[in-house]
Amino acid sequence: MTHATPIRREVRTGHLNTALHLAASGLPVLPLRARKGPFGNCNTCVNNACGGRPNMKTPGPCLCPLPCHAWAAATTDADVLTSPAWASAWKHAETVAYHPGGAGVTVVDLDNAAAVEWARAALPATRIIATTRGEHWIYRGTVRSVNHVREGVDIKSRMSYARWLGPGTCTMTDVPAAVHELVKEKPAARPAPRAIAVPAPVGGGRCPHRSPAYLERGIVMAEQRITDAQSAVHSTVYGTFVAVLSAHGRCGCLTEAHIGRLFTAAQAKGESPRHCADAWSNAATALGL
After folding, report:
1. Per mean pLDDT, which range of 183-187, 192-196, 217-221, 269-273 is the poorest?
2. Which pLDDT belongs to residue 118?
3. Is the pLDDT of residue 10 over 50?
């Protein structure tokens, strides 16, 4: 009995550490109570008197400083996660959850062996995470969340949360048409790549770093970095643009074709043409270009 309290405290500290690690990777997280339940509203927010986000049609962060409003409390802000306001929640947390929609993914929650068997026959392969009773199949892209779309199957994405059970195995693929049909939602049309205006070369149009092959390798690596992003796509795109511009933004070797390739890779991950243009402009401004 003398060791029960320190062991329990260590487990709960572990939950916070897990949350901080996930948040740093771009996954919006929140603590859960026993039986996978979120922490209830505070006195100010009881019964959503504050107009809590779950009553709104547009997903967004909870405006309360406490972990109220279930999925809407999920955050990637380490200062919030470690704040005194959240300390009690972590003290009593039984596990960590995340907001799939906020991470740009959809969880097909398969709650029994029959549901798993159905998924293997009806859905394309993707990342799989084992659960106590079945499996979570994780797809890239978001849909509306609907429970009980069929026996033993829940869809968790926008305005929902899912337990963190580990990174899983296999490669994540896009949300299939079968899932869109289950939630009765049409897939969003991807915007066509948009050409952008490239500033006039600063260094005469010749890359001084090594050879034209050096620039090509850099563009290929940048495309791959964007393509491989499984979360925090916005920040990955911006960071990649900064890296490319820091290496080649002043020598004038970048062409519209090069930058168009980066935009195409970003739009294939769901970024809008407007965000691509803004991210590029912001990256150039940050570097003083």
Report:
1. 192-196
2. 97
3. no
What is the three-state SS of the chain? CCCHHHHHHHHHHHHHHHHHHHHHCCCCEEEECHHHCECCCCCCCHHHCCCCHHHCCCCCCCCCCCCCCHHHHCECCHHHHCCHHHHHHHHHCCEEEECCHHHCEEEEEECCHHHHHHHHHHCCCCEEEECCCCEEEEEECCCECEEEEECCEEEEEEECCEECCCCCECCCEECCHHHHHHCCCCCCCCCCCCCCCCCCCCCCCCCCCCCHHHHHHHHHHHHHHHHHCCCCHHHHHHHHHHHHHHHHCCCCCCCHHHHHHHHHHHHHCCCCHHHHHHHHHHHHHHCCC
Q: Please give the model's pTM, rounded to 2 decimal places.
A: 0.61
Instruction: Report whether 260 contacts 226 (CB < 8 A).
Output: no
Q: Give the confidence band of 277 by pLDDT, cuts at 50, 70, 90.
A: confident
**Per-residue pLDDT at 48:** 64
